[in-house]
Protein 1
Amino acid sequence: MDVESKRYQLLDCIQRRAENLFLTRQLQCAEAVMAVLNQGLGGELAPELAVRLASALPEGLGRRGCLCGALNGGALALGLFIGRNGPGYRNGTTVRKAVGELYDQFKTAYKATCCRVLTKSLVYGSDQHFRHCARMTGQTARMAAAIVLDHKPELLESADWAYLRQKDRRMTAEVKKLIGVFGR
């Protein structure tokens, strides 16, 4: 398989995995984007830590309805993979440009970046709401992953394909959540 085909296949898997984690209500938008990119592309965070870092971002920053959680999670993931490693204003230029690119792609695709604007015509918690946000979550994970791969193409070879190809059913997700709660 050539590099472009493999890249396309990886981006598809990332998109589907993030959507699945959201639709099965295992993770919220920001958490799904961050968790999938972290684990799928070999980020350095423990899976639980990736979720914890992103847990304050869904539903427009603490449910205030501002910046979309998926976009927030994508920005966080870009920081993980291409962010600066120490002090100094100039060494953050790459990640700031990358986040700007993600923001612009998201705004072009959805015409807004504010959670409450993106979901204003939907009943909160309805199936339609979940499907709508799942699509944005998956697409944003794909956009962020493409930007990461533009900067670090070597990650294509080390992707966790087994994790990315997982697809949970709602019942399986419920069992996983119960085990997580009672398995401690």
Protein 2
Amino acid sequence: MEPIQTIQGAVSVLDRADVDTDQIMPKQFLKRVERTGFGEFLFFDWAKEPGWNLPPNPILATGRNFGCGSSREHAPWGLQDYGFRAIVAPSFGDIFYNNCTKIGLLPVVLAEEDVRAVMAAREATVDLERGVVAVDGREVSFHIDEDARYRLLNGLDEIGITLQSSGAIDDFERTRERSGPVTTSL
């Protein structure tokens, strides 16, 4: 995954609360395990509504409890494939939030009035390294778990984290090979 330091650009606004992962990525599109190709199905049912317009900007600002519901990994995949790199909301579904950080999609929790300011400005800068969102000349701090922050800043998914320890893993495996099979006594 790509490292994230700063995400700057236009903001897409989805001013809805309690957006379920089933609404983000409907079940009929869950027939593949690849992480790409889901962007075209994002908010599939809502996209049929008259006046629907959600441009693929780098930042999505949305209502509270975004990504609630099932643990559908396809929802963050679709958002990322569509073009979003950061999602700013007052709160997220826990599993959705974690799934975002695992693929390089930055979830940012701000107070509702700060999210409203991002929506109104239509352009923002999210600085992960400093932990701030800059909008209309002011900065608002946000917190992200240090482990997730480290992984996102360095572009490390779970496999990348494991590969950082490849030397220690190789040493362990050589030691195990020399000591013979593991035996248990009953």
